[in-house]
Give the backbone structure.
Amino acid sequence: MNKKLLDKIQEERKFLHDIANQLTIVQGLGGLLGDDLKTLMEKNIDVNNASERMGKINTSIQKMTELLKSRRAQIIIEQELISDEEE
């Protein structure tokens, strides 16, 4: 198989791995935050933990958004290069 293609496939695997890591963080912290808020409603406890977790969720979402925007721009450039090569 073409080395260029294998390198591209490896880049895509890494990209998917990076996105999956961020999604796992969001999923886990979102569940914990939900539990914290439920407990808060049942008992009048400090909300600092929930606030910190929400901040981490937002950070992960921002990272995923940046990764996706960057990848989209890269794919557009590569698509244009391939189109130019074929002409």
In short: The mean pLDDT is 80. Residues 15-86 form one domain. The longest helix spans residues 3-42.
